[in-house]
Amino acid sequence: MKTAKITLLMCLVTLLSFGNVSTKEKEALEALYTSTNGALWRTTWDMNKPVQDWYGVVVKDDKVIELNLEFNNLRGQIPEAIGDLVHLKHINFFRNKITGGIPSTISNLTSLETLNISFNMLNEALPNEIGDLKSLRKLKLFMNTINGEIPSSIGQLTNLKSLELYNNQLTGELPSTIGDLVNLKEMLLSSNQLSGKLPSSISKAKGLKKISVFDNQFFGMLPSSICSLTKLEELVISDNAFYGKLPNGMANLTNLKVLLLGNNDFKGELVHLKEQLPGLEQFDFVNMNSEGVIVTLDEEEDDN
User: Fold this and answer.
1) Distance between CA atoms of 76 and 39, rounded to whole angstroms?
2) How far apart (Å, rounded) are the C-alpha atoms in residues 167 and 90?
3) Could you give the strand order of the β-sheet that contains 193-196, starting from the edge strand earlier in sequence?
4) Which of 89, 102, 170, 272 is 20 to 30 A from 149 in CA distance terms?
5) DSSP 88
């Protein structure tokens, strides 16, 4: 009987010893708390309680797998220690006041499926290491002031379904590696300062349903390869510097419901597109700009 009690006691001690997240993960959470002024959060953490009882922290099998801290008044920067939460699958910091950038240690989070830091105050360039998040399905960083270029490593996110980077200060060209995102459904890049031509490689992302790049500085002719995106439902490219004739194959986009082309310098009988695409619910091709942006209307070939 005494032996049985001792065995039971040892089992309880074992459970208590290993029934918590690792010290490294706990320290990473504490670093996040400190770096983002946790004492001022709307719902703060009681550090004396087990980690699994902390607001917005989801623990499974003694591993931190989710951080859900949206609308929680996080102020400050994301610490490098975030990279020690290697089991994370979802990060949701939506609608806070986080500044700075995404630390390069994010590359350690190879199980991450969702990264949402939208509606914050991020003001640095995206790290090249973001391409290491091979499990990522949703990247939502809209409504910040992120600057710099979209890193070409973005093409490594082959599981990505949603790319939402609109309303930032991104510059440079859209990397041709964007076509490597073969599972992409939504590409929302409007209201940035992106320039250059729309890469013809985009046609490799056959599952695309939404493309929105309005209010940028893209120029040139629309690549004919875009006409192979037959699942496309929304194509919003207004307020850029596109010019010339639209590709002949536009009539192939029979699933289009929204086509907004205005404030570019396209030529031809655009009004006839409405007849060729009877499923259109929103269609606009009117140029409201008082000054033309076109430099030349020479015929161009698509980029390779």
Assistant:
1) 12
2) 23
3) 171-173, 193-196, 217-220, 241-245, 265-267
4) 89
5) -
Query: How are beta strands 241-245 and 217-220 bridged, if at all?
Result: parallel
Sequence-separated (6 or more) residues with CB below 8 Å from residue 218 = 174, 194, 195, 196, 197, 198, 237, 240, 241, 242
Q: Do residues 206 and 228 make contact, with C-beta atoms less than 8 angstroms apart?
A: yes
Alpha-carbon gap, residue 38 to 243, rounded angstroms: 51
Is 270 within 8 Å of 294 (Cβ atoms)? Answer: no
d(CA 74, CA 94): 10
Question: Would 17-146 and 150-304 be classified into the same CATH topology?
Answer: yes
> Which residue's structure tokens are 């919003």?
236
Q: Which CATH architecture group holds 17-146?
A: Alpha-Beta Horseshoe (3.80)
Structure tokens at 187: 């590409």
Instruction: Characterize the bridge pairing of strands 57-60 and 63-68.
Output: antiparallel
Positive or negative, the CA dihedral 259, 265, 268, 271 is: positive
Instruction: Name the nearest CA neighbour of 165 among 196, 183, 190.
Output: 190
Per residue in 152-173, pLDDT (tens digit) is 999 999 999 999 999 999 999 9
Residue 214 near residue 194 (C-beta atoms within 8 A): no
What kind of fold does domain 150-304 have according to CATH? 3.80.10
**Closest residue by Cα to residue 62 from 24, 119, 92:** 24
pLDDT tens per residue across span 277-298: 989 999 999 876 544 333 323 3
**Residue ranges of domains in the chain:** 17-146, 150-304
pTM: 0.89
